[in-house]
Amino acid sequence: MEHRSGSPDHGPDVAPDAGGDLGGPVGGEAGGPGADPDARWLALLMHAAFFLLLGASLTRFLMRHPGEARTPWIIALSITLAVLYLLGPVLGSRPTPRRLVWLGVLVLVWMVLVVLAPSFAWCAVPLFYTGLRILPPRAALALVALLTAFVVAAQLRLAEGFDPNLVLAPPAVAAVATAVFVHMQRQAVRQRELAGRQRELIDDLLRTRRELAATERREGTLAERQRLSMEIHDTLAQGLSSQQMLLQAADRTWSADPDAARRHVRTATGIAERNLAEARRFVHDLAPADLAQGGGLEAALYTLAARESAQAEGALTVHCHVEGAPGAPLPDRVQSALLRIAQGALANVREHSGATAAGLTLTHLDDRVVLDIGDNGRGFTAEPAGVRSPDTVRGHGLPAIRARVHQLGGTLTIESAPGEGTVLSAAIPLAPAPLTVPEDPA
Fold first, then answer.
1. Which region ranges are annotated with the description Disordered (predicted)?
2. Rounded to 5, what percent of the chain is helix, strand, coil?
3. Do 227 and 144 fall into the same domain?
4. Which of 44, 123, 170, 374 is an S-S bond match for 151, by CB 3.0 to 4.6 Å?
């Protein structure tokens, strides 16, 4: 038994920073030092503290009790305890039977050392962490209580009388060490849960952004497809239809009236040239060829009216009239849309109305621009927007016009009745309006 020299041996007045494998909750599998750099450094610190305390305890004993008979046993048990502790990381952190046997032998060797030399009680705190890291919660707390009671008993054996510090200090140190370890374990669990939720939120955000981008691409594709279909209908399709009628008329009159047939062919040739210019313009920037020639919307409408009248060869006369003047140049998209609306409306007049006269009227107002297309044809019963008659064969012109007006935030009015002609009015506001995806007019 070790005798006191000078001041008595106190209990383990050590309150190191929390260490050990802080990768898992108390009683569960630790994540291992390699799972987290901070946990790895804390574990290394805890291991270093154990060997430092063990070496200090052995040095103190050798300095105070040199040459005693128990000294070889103390040295041998110290070496055994160090070797056993080194085997701990090799066995892993799961509470396997082999790991539990190792812990039991480790604690037993330490108890023998404390009985022989109470100074080795200083190594209790690292053993607290070892038990808390490996054992289930209740077993770990029981082991801490057992080690604490053993430290108190060993220290009281050295005291000359009852010393409250020897009774209260070891439990206080054990309680603080256990509380710190449990708190850090719970913080580690919360951090892992928070990191998991953050990863889930980031994944959801990325998935939502991908879905939104895909939706925008689909909507953009549909809008562009719809716009191109309207462009083709108002230009190339109309020109090809006119060429077909002119060539059919030339074929019918080729023998009876060669001059008329040649006029039809020349007119069809002019339309083909016009369509070729439109097709080339499509490839360039999809802008109307009439607008690309300069002069603005008014000049393009006058050119359109003259061309329609010439192509009809007296069967249809188209007049154009402009009222007012714009306060500022119209946006390109407004000019392009109004020209396409005029082309589509005149195509309907030429092919379906049987009219002999039609008029284009462009009116500039303070807050909007209005395009009116009227004819003296047979008229029809106007259907509500989005409704198509069952006997409609083509039926693409008016829905396309509605879609163009809707894209610009405007309104389309159709006034018609059987035998009374038709007036189509498209009003486009000049204030900026949000672009919308048009409905499929087909």
1. 1-30
2. 65, 10, 30
3. no
4. 170
Domain that holds residue 45: 33-204
CATH number, residue 297: 3.30.565.10
Pair 159, 110 in one domain? yes
Domain shared by 123 and 255, yes or no: no
Q: Among 142-151, 269-278, 337-346, name the most confident range.
A: 337-346
Task: Say whether both 144 and 275 belong to one domain.
Answer: no
CB of 192 within 8 A of CB of 24?
Answer: no
Q: Are residues 229 and 192 in the same domain?
A: no
4-18, 41-55, 98-112, 393-407 — most confident range: 98-112
How far is Cα 294 from Cα 292, in angstroms, rounded to an integer? 5
Q: Are residues 164 and 254 in the same domain?
A: no
In tens, the pLDDT along 257-273 reads 888 888 888 888 888 88
Say what the pLDDT of residue 437 is. 46
Spatial distance between the Cα atoms of 428 and 413, rounded to a whole number of angstroms: 12
Question: What is the model's pLDDT at position 11?
Answer: 36
Residue ending a domain, among 204, 223, 256, is 204
φ/ψ bin of 286: left (φ > 0), alpha (ψ from -120 to 50), beta (otherwise):
left
* Angle formed by the axes of helices 124-134 and 37-64, nearest 10°: 140
| 263/160 same-domain check | no
CB 122 within 8 A of CB 110: no
- 95 versus 193: the higher-pLDDT residue is 193
Edge-to-edge strand ranges of the sheet holding 422-429:
317-323, 357-364, 368-375, 422-429, 411-416
Counting Cβ atoms within 10 Å, is residue 113 exposed (0-12), middle (13-18) or buried (19+)? buried
Distance set, CA 398 to CA 301, 333, 335, 381, 405 (Å): 19, 19, 18, 13, 11
In angstroms, the CA 339 to CA 371 distance is 9
Q: Using CA atoms, how far apart are residues 319 and 302, in angstroms rounded to an integer?
A: 8
pLDDT in tens, 156-193: 766 666 667 667 777 777 777 777 777 777 777 788 88
Token pair of 370 as six digits = 């209005």
pTM (2 decimals)? Answer: 0.40
CA-to-CA distance for 240 and 219, rounded, in angstroms?
Answer: 30
Residues 290, 143: one domain? no
